Amino acid sequence: MKELNEAIRKWGKAIGKDVVKVDMFLNHRIDTALIFRMGEELADRFASARPDLILTVEASGIALALACARALGNIPVVFAKKGSTVVQNEEMVTSKVYSFTHKTENTIRVDRRYLPKGSRVLIVDDFLADGQAVRGMTDLCVQAGCTVCGVGIGIEKGFQSGGDTLRRQGTDLYSLAIVDHIDEKGNICLREA
Ligand code: 5GP
Fold it and tell me: Which of 22, 62, 125, 139 is deepest in the core (most CB within 10 A)?
């Protein structure tokens, strides 16, 4: 997506060889016009999959999920919560997810009431790296008896394994921008469509 690629070129910073920091427009400060454009683009791509709801994970997936849900005609957004809770019972579906950025394992959880059995779920997240977050959210959907009808991503890091694995598994995956690699000078090199 042209506008997202431009924002990554203008504001994106590489941290080491594998982390892309986009705090200026996506992860700390949010560029409102851009995030709604991103949401519209994902909505256009996945409208024919007829999702009943969007599932994301707190916190940084929520803005893009909301923008996409709005463009899909105000379908609900459900965000998986991280960490443990006192209320841990059979009403909750849970899955363990290793966090690429924090190097820790989190349990993510959703109340079953918000993933009604038989729902068609569009998974949305800001980044795709090794695919752990998407795998965990898919696991929650399976436990709740829902179908994942697509996965929409803001920025995919094409040099990590998540995208290839999901495509190989036949997942309908669409990423608005793909970072091909970070070069030795720290430039973020994009894969152009
Ligand atoms: P995965 O689970 O695919 O390995 O990693 C995706 C999750 O980790 C996303 O939810 C995102 O929050 C975070 N993440 C992974 N790589 C990056 C990155 O380079 N930059 C930022 N800002 N977040 C990332």
Answer: 125
**What CA–CA distance (Å, rounded) separates 121 from 55?**
7
Rg of the chain, C-alpha, whole Å: 16
Q: Is 100 in the pocket of ligand 1 (CB under 6 A)?
A: yes
Q: pLDDT (tens digit, 0 to 9) for every residue of the chain, 193 residues total?
A: 999 999 999 999 999 999 999 999 999 999 999 999 999 999 999 999 999 999 999 999 999 999 999 999 999 999 999 986 666 678 999 999 998 888 889 999 999 999 999 999 999 999 999 999 999 999 999 999 999 999 999 999 999 999 999 999 999 999 999 999 999 999 999 998 6
13: domain CATH number is: 3.40.50.2020
To test the pocket of ligand 1, the residue of 15, 25, 100 to mutate (highest count of ligand atoms within 8 Å of its CB) is 100
Structural element, H or E, at residue 47 = none
Residue ranges with strand state E in 9-59: 13-15, 19-21, 53-57
Whole domain around residue 13: which residue ranges?
A: 2-190
The domain total for the chain is: 1
Q: From the CA of 111, how far away is ligand 1's center (Å)? A: 24
Using the structure block, give the residue that is written with the tokens 């690699």. 181
User: Which atom of ligand 1 sits closest to the CA of residue 133?
Assistant: 2
